[in-house]
Design brief:
The complex is a heterodimer of chains A (about 270) and B (about 250). By secondary structure, chain A is mainly α. Chain A contains eleven helices and two strands. Chain A has helices at about 15-35, 45, 50-80, 85-100, 105-110, 130-135, 135-165, 165-175, 180-210, 220-230, 235-265, and strands at about 120-125, 125-130. The longest helix of chain A has about 30 residues, at about 50-80. In chain A, about 30% of the residues are buried. Chain B is built from nine helices and twelve strands. Chain B has helices at about 40-50, 80-90, 105-115, 120-135, 150-165, 180-195, 210-215, 230-235, 240-250, and strands spanning about 5-15, 15-25, 30-35, 55-60, 65, 70, 75-80, 90-95, 170-175, 200-205, 215-220, 225-230. In chain B, the strands form three sheets. Chain B has a six-stranded mixed sheet, with helices on both faces. In chain B, β1 (about 5-15) and β2 (about 15-25) form a beta hairpin. Chain B is globular. The chains are: A mainly alpha (about 270), B alpha/beta (about 250). The interface of A and B includes residues 167, 171, 173 and 185 of A.
């Protein structure tokens, strides 16, 4: 009888071997870190150092402001891109081409040095202000990061809007909805399902991208780490403290994204 | 004056002329069924009546108002989308593919128009919406999302959503064509009771039985033109035109 025969489960020797290799590599790295000349006991102090906390706050403010502005601009550019007006459409294409095409670091540097070519920023008959007063490191970083991101957001929002079935717009029209109400009540809420995941991804990139503002001496996490280590020369320890903060921020953003996705998820 | 008056309506998509001069009048309280082979322009004509499509020539009046235009100083001014939206408030439409808002419950779908478009009081609208869901036999599904409803149930909610705007005219664009055969009856029942209550309806359908029992008039379209029109008995049982005879021989 077949049922009396002993069953030999399939063995997986390969899994044991690969697991052992992974464990060995991890243990080796851990040992190396422990043996390295790092003053681990100093890291928590740098983590909560007042300068580091100021850098943390500035990083958060810059990332949120740049991403927020980029979302608003991105929606506007996406609507222009989908508009019936050819001038608006071409403007949107050019906008995305320019701001997506240039490195963020270059854009930040250009904004920060704007005073070299434009002494004043003015709108005729409204106001005139000296460029070097307006273009602080924060504003330059905000423009550099935000405008670049808005070009990406425009494409994300466009994909989201296009993903909503045309029948939805027709149904909204058929009950007398105006185009703006249709967008706000029918199309955008459904587009959110497509828009949120890549936006969350981009926001995580944005958090890390704020580090580029350190080149124009904006006091974000990396610049804060450099400030602290310039006094005590504990370069790696302060960088590790900054690294820990980035991981905290990115983890929080991932959790937030998860809940947002759930809120707009399929019914 | 008839509630709907269409004169010489023409419409092309690219180089294809879909409507070649349609004349049609629908009286108040009348139920008109548009029949004909696919590609005859039935749905396109229906979509022109509430200006989902703009017509190339001719004119459509609904309740004395030119659809898609505003008469002023002896001229017809083309409407902005906002103004066209205002005109559509009085014209309900039911789609082949239901087009319920998937992110809102059945009740919220029905309430959406009166609350967002007419800016009416939520509590009052809610009571009316529940009464409408009761009327289509779905009050117990008020809290369900469209994905949780069968096709027939979704279409009945869609009818309630259109009725919530208290329209003068209801347009039905093949309302049962996307349904499983056993669900067709429940939607036709709702439409029949609506017709009995005196609603003016234009129905594009392939349900010859419905047209025979409910329609006051049947209009037969082929290639973007009206071929034959009259009472169901005249057109369905004693068609005069060879094109109508061929079509009916196939579907009956």
């Amino acid at each position: 009888m077949a049922s009396e025969l002993e069953v030999v489960p399939l063995r997986h020797p390969g899994r044991w071997i690969s697991a052992a290799i992974v464990a060995l590599v991890v243990a080796g790295l851990g040992w190396a870190m422990a043996e390295a000349q790092i003053q681990w006991e100093d890291v928590p102090g740098f983590f909560t150092h007042p300068v580091m906390l100021e850098g943390l706050l500035n990083t958060i403010v810059l990332a949120v402001a740049a991403q927020g502005g980029a979302i608003v601009l991105g929606i506007v550019v996406a609507l222009m891109r989908l508009s019936a007006n050819p001038v608006a459409r071409w403007f949107a294409v050019g906008y995305i081409w320019l701001f997506r095409g240039l490195p963020v670091l270059l854009q930040i540097l250009i904004w920060f040095n704007l005073a070299l070519v434009f002494k004043n920023i003015s709108v005729p008959m409204l106001f005139t202000v000296p460029t070097n007063v307006v273009m602080t490191a924060f504003v330059a970083a905000l423009l550099g990061l935000g405008l670049n991101e808005s070009a990406y957001m425009a494409e994300i929002v466009r994909a989201g809007l296009s993903s909503v079935d045309a029948g939805q717009t027709e149904a909204a029209k058929s009950i007398g909805m105006t185009p703006l109400t249709t967008l706000r009540r029918v199309v955008l809420p459904q587009a959110m399902r497509v828009i949120i995941p890549p936006t969350g991804n981009n926001f995580i990139n944005m958090i890390k991208g704020t580090s580029m503002a350190s080149v124009i001496a904006f006091l974000e996490l990396i610049h804060a780490a450099n400030n602290i280590s310039s006094r005590n020369l504990e370069i790696m320890e302060t960088l590790f403290a900054a690294a820990a903060w980035y991981l905290v921020l990115v983890s929080l953003a991932s959790v937030g994204q998860h809940y947002l996705e759930r809120a707009y998820g399929p019914r | 004056m008839a509630l709907v008056e269409a004169v010489g309506v023409r419409k092309s998509f690219g180089h294809t002329e879909v409507l070649r001069g349609i004349d049609l009048e629908v009286e108040r309280g009348e139920v008109v069924c548009l029949l004909g082979p696919s590609g005859a322009g039935k749905s396109t004509f229906l979509r022109c009546v509430n200006h989902l499509e703009t017509i190339d020539a001719g004119r459509i009046w609904v309740d004395g108002v030119p659809v898609g235009f505003r008469a002023a100083h002896g001229k017809l001014h083309e409407l902005r989308e906002r103004e066209a939206a205002h005109q559509r408030r009085d014209i309900g439409m039911v789609f082949q593919r239901f087009n319920l808002f998937p992110h809102r419950t059945a009740l919220e779908n029905v309430m959406e128009g009166p609350v967002q478009v007419l800016r009416r009081d939520r509590a009052e609208v809610r009571a009316e919406a529940l009464a409408l869901l009761e009327r289509v036999g779905l009050v117990e599904k008020a809290g369900a999302y469209p994905a949780q409803l069968s096709g027939g149930q979704q279409q009945r909610v869609a009818i309630a959503r259109a009725l919530a705007m208290k329209p003068k005219l209801m347009l039905f664009d093949e309302p049962t064509s996307a349904l499983d055969p056993e669900l067709v009856g429940e939607v036709l029942d709702v439409m029949t009771s609506l017709a009995r209550d005196g609603m003016t309806m234009i129905v594009v359908t392939h349900e010859i039985g419905f047209a025979r029992s409910v329609a006051d008039r049947v209009v037969f379209l082929v290639d973007g033109a009206v071929v034959e029109s009259g009472t169901p008995a005249a057109v369905l049982d004693n068609p005069q035109q060879p094109r109508t005879q061929q079509f009916l021989a196939k579907v009956l």
